Sequence to fold (807 residues):
Amino acid sequence: MHPRALRLGASVAAALVVAAGVLTTSPASAAVGDDDPSVGAASPNGLVVNEVESNGDDTDWVELRNTSSAAIDLSGYAFLDDDSSHEAYVLPAGSTIAAGGYFVIDQVSATAPGFDFGLGGADTARVYDPAGDLVLRYSWTAHAAVTYGRCPDGTGALVDTTASTKGAANDCSSPVRINEVESDGGSPGDWVELTNVGTTTVDLGGYVFRDSDDTHAYTIPTGTTVAPGGFTVLDEQDFGVGLGKADSARVFDPRGDVVDSYTWTAHAATTYGRNPDGTGAFAETSAPTKGTANRFAGIVTAEAWPGGPDERVLDDEDTFTGDLSGIDWTTSASAAGQLWAVQNGDGLLYHLVSDGEGGWAPSNAAGTELHYADGSGTPDAEGVTVTSDDPGAVYVSTERNNDVSSTSRPAVLRFATSDGSQSTLDATDEWNLSADFPGLGANAGLEGVTWVPDSWLTAHGFADEHTGAAYTPATYTGHGDGLFFVGVEGTASVYAYALMSDGAFQRVATIATPFSVVADVQFDPTLDALWVVCDDACSGRTALYEVADGAFAATTVYEAPSNVDRTLANEGFAISGVCTGGSRATFYADDNDTDGFSLRTGTYPCDSSTPGDGGTPGDGGTPGDGGTTTPTPVPTPTPGGGSTPAPGGTASGGSTPGAGASPSGPSAAPSESSLTEANRGTLTAPATARPGETITIGVGTRYAGQEVHVWMFSTPTLLGTATVAADGTVTATIPADAPAGEHRIVVTAEDGTVLGWTTITIDPVTGALAFTGAEGLGVGAVAAFLLLAAGAGVLVVRRRRGTPASE
Fold:
């Protein structure tokens, strides 16, 4: 029985036992996990929830403050979020909060104990006393841009703060900051630019601007505002005095408190500006940018999103339950392509298809449950990608096993599926990268994953930091035909890895990012670039990286589309390879399921008239805008002689409607010597089949549109000639007189080159199944049949990454 079913059965049994006990015992006392929405964020003994960090770059935490005049012993207090199934974190003996002091309940890390679950965008912090009574409760519906904190500290309402102040008094200051200063005759004179580092628009009416002279005071008129992340300029013609080469700019709030100030001793050659805007230190800019983001030499400055201003909802309400984290677009028989998505909390994989009317929905509505190779665990699925060299497989990046949530397990897992139709999947391979990330937090691991083909990397002069030379794929035997790039939340960086067939791995590149969090990575062969994505921690910014001097470097940083809510937890990003009407579709996975929706789409501009723009799409697409959609096969072994075969079946292109056998045929069968370990396993087929059965063979999307020949060995038998469909598949029919036992399925190119082969076992039972239902079967027979079916369900065709089975 599936572990979840066991847990459900155990829960039902326990509930029945508890229910029976209720009839004969006294009412239960308070217990950790019980909830009471009437309990607030302040306790009668003076203990209050003072600050909450639910979207931390390192850890989530809740800060308590003691507003009383006596110390409070917190030993034995327990902490939970809104999920009572989580194991409560019990504060250790000796935990004390002094009068007027602060106490932080922190998430577990490699160096300190704490709670082993994360705090979500919509969540609750609950604190219980040693008797099990709920004494503090605070809920929120979305991540704070910074933190939620009491303003004034300790006593006020919990609001979005200006800065995180873990274990200290809250920063309730104005979010207005001086961002750029022109003191040497700008246009039309000197000026000072203000920005807003907060999350709500600030009315500057009543704020006062002064230079270094207190008598030079300019009161900003009512109605003057500055939006979050926006800019408002005070001109010399407004404040009435020029700024000197040794001077100051100071801003005071209506109460007379200093909000921000900056002093200089000489005019800048350009202007003085903060780097980054609003929060960084002042430095000379590369050019004045009055009313816009600052620019600095050698620094990529965020610019407006060039596509449409909106993100439109794609999924029906409550299609997903939240935690949709990773997404990937690839080709399919449909012109719109297909999407793969993963949900991290419950480790689900979704295969999504277009309805042709602008919406998308999973073809596997319940999702496919993912497990580790032994059938156990719940991978914290954060990112997903498919590769052109491994048709019939999906790769998932994870942070940990959610069943052991306090332990880091940053890994890439391979699952054998072409459409997600299975109810459960066990990983066929795992590459656990823990050794490369000592001390990484359990909730700070691999957020995103994408795959880049070796052919593209070598063509663009990619360098290998491990060898210190140009990247040479042959250095890493058994790694396939490309590298996996993973985004790590806890380091805010991207890393390129060669993943070998024996589970070994080698880091090939390290890529720093300008972001506080890396939420996803996506290779874009149309732009010859790598997308690096930040979520709401960076207000939805994305960056494009291109290879320069052997290394990936940021060339462009984009703001979120202008009309988009920047607090959306868009942890997944994908972009279509199809250019239609001057734009390509972008896709976003919202981890918070905001308003009941998790999937949104936008647009990115493209040139429909450029040959190859939007060409072979998806990971591993043909490199370059001008690339062909039918690349020449890489393997080049010369086929040897062999007996002239007689056609014994038929073959047709995968799911392409009406695709049939080609009138042309091969000149000769491939020889035994051409079936090598190097080209074994580079295609997929069922592990077993019956005589007369039609099977689907995955050749790879890189061969889409090419004519291929399908063979069955031992005695070479041509099953047919077909054109590979857009999803990289062909179908073939096993001859009705095929002998029982193990055979080989071989696919060759039109010129006879072996594209790949794999083994298949022909079942000795011929004809139809012996029954079509369970009628007439005894209970034991039904059980035996179900067990047999369950056993068959775990058979997978392993990629050539796995150790080949003996013939």
About this structure: The radius of gyration is 31 Å.
